[in-house]
Amino acid sequence: MLPGSLPPALTDWFAAKGWQPRSHQLAMLEEARAGRHALLVATTGAGKTLAGFLPTLTELIEAPSEGLHTLYVSPLKALAVDIRRNLVTPIEEMGLDIRVETRTGDTSSDKKARQRVKPPQILLTTPESLSLLLSYPDAGTMFASLKTIVVDEVHAFATGKRGDLLSLCMARLQRIAPAMRRVALSATVADPDGYRAWLAPDGDIDAVGLVTGEPGAPPDISILLPEDRIPWAGHSGRYAASQVMRVIEANRTTILFCNTRSLAELIFQDLWKANDKSLPIGVHHGSLSLEARAKVEAAMADGQLRALVATASLDLGVDWGDVDCVIQMGAPKGSSRLLQRIGRANHRLDESSRAILVPGNRFEYLEARAALDAVEAGELDPDLFRPGALDVLAQHVMACACAAPFEQGALLDEIRSAMPYSALDDETFERVLRFIADGGYALKAYDRFKRLVQQPDGTWRVTHPQFVAQHRLNAGIIVEATMLKVRFRNGRQLGRVEEGFAATLAPGDTFLFAGLSLEVESIDGEDLIVRATSRPARIPTYGGSRMPLSTSLADRVRAFLADRKEWDRFPPDVHDWLEMQDRRSVLPRPGQLLVETFPREGRHYMVAYSFEGWNAHQSLGMLITRRMEAQGLKPLGFVASDYALACYGLEKVTDPASLFSPDILENEFVDWVQQSHLLKRAFREVAVIGGLVDRQHPGKRKTGRQVTFSTDLIYDVLRKYEPGHLLLQAAWDDARARMTDVGRLANLLDRAGGTMLHVDLERVSPLAVPVLVLIGREKVATGSADDDLLIEAEALAAEAMGA
């Protein structure tokens, strides 16, 4: 289609800007005029937002209309505000009579009420706010005129629970407005067909056109090497603060991405210490208040900051044109995430975005090199679609009931048109309805769980208006994680740990905290009750869950180890490290599980190089030390990295294969999950999402302790009287998949028997040094930690690398 087929207002606006419409923008207009759904995959800076809205602007120029024409759905509240700014400006410059408004949890109640009566032509919102809109009786009227829904950054949530909710909402919208077109936008999609199927009504992939943007200039990515040598251990790149500061000084604006909030705070402090020129630097992450984040975003937009330290809170779509460099502190963990972050720099398609990676240790150097190679090869991380979650389905069904009574068969057909629920069977849907109707067999005696009733004509309706109000107050998919207080039985508090870590603990487990070896006695609400012990701390790390190393990057790192021709690309200290490992022990081949055993300082160590990511290794360490205990090997503890798992004890491991057998998932894993707080934590989340437990009542919000108490009580009742309850099943699904990376764990154990290579050594190997240094990290107090770690690392390295 030629640019001339655009309405004159748009043609003139492009000309006034000195621009030409890009081919993918016009292709999106073609898809719209053909009445087809469309997925646009285009790099950042290629004008994705305008491409998504171009058909809407064209239609509203050619045929002005009142009522809601286009819904724009974003995963982030702030992103909706940002796009509003980028969309409203062109509309005003063209003098168009088109209203654009946002609707999120921060929108005032009077504006929300007015939007339902007199909606704008374009409404920008989130999946949760859309679900709430659909829960009102007037939803049919509000959305009757809807022509298009645009899903931005679709990769960020389509494969998770928020994607499940949005998919169900789109199915409902399609029933209200059958001619509605679905559009999705993304810069990083590895499996376009998977997303086309997710986007399409009834999973009809052929109904969704795929539009691919122009590739643009390749990114300019480099790896920052330290002034002396790459460290043996660590995962932050903090050693390079002064070098990073010099990069900041040489650029207009730099964004530094960190993989955790705590690291962002540390890097921010490190940079201030090295900031001799007192350049303005900010920090941005999800734990900061909304006001603090807004202030920093405004400062960036006005060009007042030279650098911003951020986490995944800025991975998506906040577009500042003056950012000319992105720095990734620590390893990127995945090529798709790296590309997304690189895309925050230089929003010009014909100029390369510049990025610098700062690896934390030698394995992370290999990972950084693997990420560069993956980006150059156009290889993205795999997108893993899974069946829709049942707690999300329960929430959606309740929303539908709040809007109007429904007929069971018709609603099931509508739900099955959403790809994540296309295989939902009659029996499971019946269980979902019965759960909403009375809470299930064990809870049906309590009126507060009786939310739905089936009428004589067979339709289902809400039993009382109070349940409608409660749904709208409590609906949502994001359940805030709590921190647990670590305290002694007498009440003395030692500090707080992330609930994700506490959830993996069972009574009798020991861990290091505040310089003490502590034994878990119990978890009481939001308190982790401990006692001091002389027993060694088995679990020497207490960080929460981390971004997992992607399987594609892990495979590339494995290939590096096995291919000596690649080593010439690496710095001398990395080359020598691999050379010495090859001489002293073995370098694993791709697909092979290398397990080394060796003695050191009165202990016996077993190190497995499995490359399945920290989360999976952390879970495996818990299970293997339990099995070691049963075998009389007297385990003292374990430590995990993204690349390896090290277990250590008082007796030598002579048969590692027996520790890695697949039945560990059937025996130790089930016991561990049931004894730990893991299942209770998962249950609390699904109980909140599924509507079994309310987070707030009118004028009053429950504390985390109150929610935990309520869900723990229900959990204990269901475990005892109804172990097959719908939400217990959903909690098991969550605990197995999301919290423990059990899929990768299962793959590792399945192949361990046939691929394990056991090498028994007389001393520590070079490859083991990075993971063993982690044991020392948790044993030193803050302050002197860096010096002590350096001494420990150098001693280990000298032993491993020496003659």
UniProtKB/TrEMBL annotation:
Keywords: ATP-binding, DNA damage, DNA repair, DNA-binding, Helicase, Hydrolase, Isomerase, Nucleotide-binding. Its EC number is 3.6.4.-. CDD domains: SF2_C_LHR (cd18796). Residues 29-199 form the Helicase ATP-binding domain. GO terms for molecular function: ATP binding; ATP hydrolysis activity; DNA binding; helicase activity. Transmembrane segments: none annotated. It holds the Pfam family Helicase_C. It comes from the Bacteria. One of its GO terms (biological process) is DNA repair. Residues 240-383 form the Helicase C-terminal domain. InterPro entries: ATP-dep_Helicase, DEAD/DEAH_box_helicase_dom, DEXH_lig_assoc, Helicase_ATP-bd, Helicase_C-like, Lhr-like, Lhr-like_DEAD/DEAH_assoc, Lhr_WH_dom. Belongs to the Lhr helicase family. Lhr-Core subfamily. This is ATP-dependent Lhr-like helicase. It comes from Sphingomonas pseudosanguinis. The lineage of its organism: Bacteria, Pseudomonadati, Pseudomonadota, Alphaproteobacteria, Sphingomonadales.
